[in-house]
Amino acid sequence: MQRLLPGVLWLALAAALGMRAFQAWTRPVVLAAQAPAEFELLARSAASGGGLSYDGKTPTAFRLPGYPLALAGVSLLTGRPASPLPATLLNILASLCMVFVVFRLALRLLPAPWAAAAALLAGINPELAELDFRATAEGLFALEFALAALCAVRVLEEPGRWTRWAACGAVLGLSLVTRSTLLVWPPVLAAGLVLVRPGPGVLRRAGVLVLCAYTFTAAWSARNLALFGRVVPFEDGMGWHMLWQGSTSVEGVQPDENLPEPLKTYFFAKDPRIGPASKTLAVANIAADPLRYAGLCLRRLPVLWFRGAWAERALGFDEAVSAYAARGAWGGVAAKAAGKALELGVLLCALWGAWSLRRDPRALVVAGQVLYMNIHVFTMGLPRYVAPAFPLTVLLAVCGAAALRCQLGGKPLFSEVMGSPS
């Protein structure tokens, strides 16, 4: 236990809990009784034996099963299915496990103090801490996202062990039934691992990774085929709806109340017909002006990576600059500027870390998985969609800071400074 949880990691875990306690204290609304979110409705139905259903009777595939089933399990353990407690417990537990995974992953690239710094920064991110008090899948997906990178790095360290390939595929499969973000990452990752670690039997082991990953979606598709007569590998209709929203000029998400008909009716009724209708509109929008759509995608890059406002939230200045300027609160304007400078610094350090470690395939796996999150430019540019990538982003940023310190101190770079694989 002392080897797995050294003192510096206990400090990171304590800081992560402290940030969540701070969120609960300063934002009591997050703990207030509210109408159950749709994931909570699905979880309550599953816990009572009604399957994935909003009303306990009618099966649905509108949302993926990973998070509501995990939430149903916690609800059964706590005996509190009608309160926000199960979701809060599940999310905080997932976040603490994520901090541990980031630390174990960072130890493969950094000495223990630097690895602890990466775990600490991942744990105190205020955006992830705030999301832990909502019944959303970001916390669980952040854990799976970090764990997938750790499993991929373990494959690189011992590519001859097919069990490591299978474990990596299984973690990716779990992520696919939590959020569909990594839908094409398994074959991309498998191909990259084969290129980096060629050898006898590596193609078969890569096939095991891909097979294990998509086995989870195959089981979900089989369930949907039996219930609805259609193969639904991910969310029923929501993928096309997100693509349609991405083909419009709205940055982020189209307000649900302002959706055009019949999309508005389909959305609130959880009607799968939203998929075909959205697909028709999306294809028409993109085909009418492909360059405009490409421009919209590029505009979403800063939305994804530079408008999460995690730094401003940490400083307690989360209003708009115009609001502070209108009432002459120039200290708030300065704090916003400092927050954005901090966010930019983390991003630049992350890029520098990836560049400094470009000869280490383990770091390339981490960097590649973070860069993959730009897939969201094709749909909706919501900062919370890339929030689960922050732990790996900050890990790369710590690598960049360590590299800069080595270079300024005239020391050798990572091959002689960084810790060996553990």
Protein architecture, described:
With 422 residues, the protein is mostly helical. It is built from 21 helices and no strands. Helix 1 packs antiparallel against helix 4, helix 1 runs parallel beside helix 5 and helix 9 runs antiparallel to helix 10. The longest helix has 27 residues, at 202-228. The two termini are 15 Å apart.
Mean pLDDT: 88
Q: What shape does the CA trace take?
A: globular
Please describe the biggest sheet, giving its number of strands, its sense, and whether it closes into a barrel.
none
Radius of gyration: 22 Å
- Report the helical percentage: 55-70%
Strands, total number:
0
Which secondary-structure class do the elements indicate? mainly alpha
Strand content: under 5%
Compressed to H and E, one letter per element, the order equals HHHHHHHHHHHHHHHHHHHHH
Low-confidence stretches: 415-422
What's the tally of helices?
Answer: 21
Q: Between the first and last Cα atoms, what is the distance in angstroms?
A: 15 Å
